[in-house]
Amino acid sequence: MIRHLHPAAWWLWALALAAGASMTTNPVLLAAHVGVLVAVVLARRDGSPWGRAFRLYAVLGVVIVLVRLVLHALVGLKFGDIPLLPLPEAHLPSWAAGIQLGGTVYLEGALGAGLEGARLATMILAIGAANALASPKRLLKVFPAALHEIGAALVVAVTVAPQLAGSVQRVARARQLRGEPALRLKGFRSIVMPVLQDTLDRSLALAAAMDGRGYGRRPESTNGRATGALTLLGLLGSCVGIYGLLDTTSPAALGLPTLVVGLLLCVAGLWSGGRSVPRTIYRRDPWGAPEWLTIACGAAALVAMLVTVRRDPAALGMPLAPLGLPALPVLPLAGLALAAVPAVATPVPPLVSARRAPREVAA
After folding, report:
1. Dihedral of CA 141/143/148/152: which sign?
2. Is residue 54 classed as helix, strand or coil in its secondary structure?
3. Of 196, 199, 287, 313, which residue is most buried, by most CB within 10 angstroms?
4. Which residues sit opposite 171 in a β-bridge?
5. SS3 77
């Protein structure tokens, strides 16, 4: 089957992996998360600009890890037994207690800082995977009607990286056609203005198209108070339920049941608010078995992490004091293996199939 998977399925799958990555600093699990994300993106992204922008999120993740290590070396709390980098230390007054400028960097502390940065980088890579697999413009089409204004702002925000990548490629192609040298550090200033101008023109065109289609125009609503009350209660219930799931000492009734009730109230609030926003869709994205399978695979990975947090939270961390080898938790690894199933069990995007066809004919 050749078609685009529903964008909501890809985003729910990626958000589940991001939530799972936020619970661990185990390098094995973080590497497994990254491997699953890269494998699925390489197998199911198309040739669109947002599909090619995945590498920008990967570069951003590497930068985050490096910045976290630099901050640890400069102002981080140094601990450990294995010295790694001797640095001079600046003695601060008593009112600045708890802040350490410089000092010897130890292997344990640097490893802990790097894993914290890697955890954030993995979460950003998951968002980049969702952006590469699902067009933000198609996601706006299926966004709840009550949140169409927020959805429009989010779509404009997440399309910055793909638009920037596309602008750089168009400027580089134009320079090659004019016989100018390849892009280097010296020619960086000569491409900044064309790239910024092209990105700004496309953003203005997107804003004009959205305004012409009526985005941001809301009629008078008669059920505003009911919508606000349902949404507020739903958000409070969701926050309490998430806290109950993460806190192993809280009562069981404060976790999953409260979270389910909060989510149901949020859905009721969105439905109530969406009744006052008339909106039509010309061509709806299909929702079938591949979408349910994708969401189930992402949910399996998240549930495996939540169960491990309850039963064996130490397996999700890296032993630093004393330094030891990371654990190999079987349940989270099995859940991540299921999360990689969409790489082969989902429909092939049209642009990918069109790109593969000439190669098969040439062979």
Report:
1. negative
2. helix
3. 199
4. none
5. coil
Six token digits for residue 209 = 């198209």
- As given in the structure block, the two tokens for residue 107 are 């292997």
Hey, what amino acid is at 28? V
* pLDDT of res. 54: 86
Cβ–Cβ < 8 Å for 198, 167: yes
pLDDT on residue 163: 66
Contact in structure between 344 and 2 (CB atoms under 8 Å): no
State the Cα–Cα distance between residues 77 and 72, nearest whole angstrom: 7
Alpha helices, DSSP H only, in the chain?
A: 7-21, 27-44, 49-52, 54-75, 107-133, 136-141, 148-158, 160-177, 188-212, 224-246, 256-274, 289-311, 330-339, 342-345, 350-362
Strand-pair category, 89-90 with 101-102: antiparallel
Q: Tell me the three state secondary structure of residue 3.
A: coil
Q: What is the b/e burial string over 253-266, where b = at least 16 CB atoms within 10 angstroms of the residue's CB? A: eebeebbebbeebb
Q: Would you say the pTM of this structure is higher than 0.85?
A: no
Check if the beta carbon of residue 129 is closer than 8 Å to that of residue 41: yes
Torsion of CA 180, 186, 191, 196, to 10 degrees: 170
Tens of pLDDT, residues 212-242 = 766 655 555 555 677 777 778 888 888 888 8
Confidence (pLDDT) at 68 = 93
Give the pLDDT means over successive 10-residue stretches in the chain (363 positions).
82 93 93 95 80 85 94 85 84 71 86 93 93 76 64 64 69 74 59 73 72 61 67 83 77 79 80 63 74 93 91 89 88 94 88 48 42
